[in-house]
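Appendix B, record 7
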Amino acid sequence: MPFFPNGPLPAQNLESTLNRFNTEHETTTSFVGAGVTTVENKRAFIQRLLEALNKDIADEGYDENPLVTKILTCLRFLSREPEGCDDLFGNNGVAVLLKQARLDVDAKFDFTENPSATEALKCLCNTLLQHPPARLGVAELGGVESICHLLKDCHSELPSDFQFLLMRITFLLSVEDPAIVRCMLAPNLGFVDTLTIYLQPLTKQQSVKAEMVMSEILKTVYNLMSVGKPAPATTRSSTKLNGRTGSRSSISSTVVTLAGVTVDVDYIDGFKNLLPVITHLLINHPLPSTPLTPPISHMVHTLLNFPLTPYRDLFFKQGDVHPLVGRLCEILAGSLDANSSEDSKPNARRKSLSQTKVEDILPSLLLVLGGIARQDVDAKDALRDILLHEDIDRSKPLDEGTSLTSRLIGFMTSIIHPNIRDSVCELIFVLCDEDPGKLVRYTGYGHAAGFLYSKGIAGGPFDDSAANSRPASRSQPIHPISGKYERPDTGPELEDMTEEEKEREAERLMVLFERLNRTGVIKAVFPK
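Structure tokens (predicted):
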């Protein structure tokens, strides 16, 4: 049975108990759940540890006493499981952790690397993760302002491990809590500028630690932009035409993000300095074997909260849309390559993604692509050249090819991946100028029917004779349902058939008519 202290714990036995406990439970993630101890015993042990931090060693100097680090390490292990941690997760426990991390209201914001402070931050991360209401305790005790000040005043001194822990805490604090987000965004804290300062050097670093810090910063930015955004203000009436892109933009207090959400332009404007840093990272950061994983996935998610129209020059350096558009399409193709598996039948519609997580992540990338295409004509043309090129192989069903276009069309009728299906359909529809005729002309009605029906555009016929703005050079007729070339009728004429061939053909027709008769498609009348 794994070791766990029971009953009273005298001060003289505390250090030896901690040494044994920390050695045995370095990788333990469950105590009560695994039957190592009871809730009561675990609660009593945590109370004894907090008492030791508050009383037994309060006068001995925190920095000099190695016992503090051992206690905090033990609390970190215990806080991996919420059961029995009521005292640690309450305001008194949070206050102890903030004090040990030098984040209490009396802290001086001069950083000194210390093992006990590091352990306290790790324990605070566990506390916020396992018990989200502890966020309120951190805010009430001044921890939010202390973290922002420490990051701002000591950015050149903090090692990457400390940066990661602090950014991790800011992310956990900002999850679904508008009040704390508003506190973080107080003008006197300059927190968004601080995040920009930390993110910029990471564009030149390629290490696991740098990527970990980068991911926490991007997740925090996403929370700040989405959780804390105010209700849209009333749009002013004056408008102007953006001649460069051919799109209409409003001089108003609201803008539409790439996710299609209307937000206050003044609020989003506070984050614009982050945008060129994020796009630079997205274009230049090496792609992993599975591209849509952190930190790349967090970059994509963060872009969803930005509108393109007012920040075109920040999205596209020197107005060139191709680097960003090309990289996003590269990530899309790489993600499908890394996560797709096909069964023995060569039908792309049966393709499934081997990692179900991609069903939740890939639509975000498709949403970014659709938002960019919807808000910028030049970017839409560049995307159309990559994703909907005219020379698609129509000699076979469109969803059976290996090109990126064929694979996307295959997902238009997917039952296994509804989120990807809906996002792909919306993207292709936008690239077809949201014109049903263009969509049907390119993909065939069979692939587009379900999507059009969901948008209330079912039926037809769709006049696509002049639908596509780009010339289509094709000499063969295209089947309106499948989108593939129609095969010419090369069957033998009746007079060229032998009697045996005529009998086989007549028998085949009779079977077909009988099948149609049974299904009610036609009502055959047999001669008497």
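Remarks on this record: Confidence is low (pLDDT under 50) at residues 235-251, 342-351, 464-473. The two ends are 90 Å apart (CA to CA).
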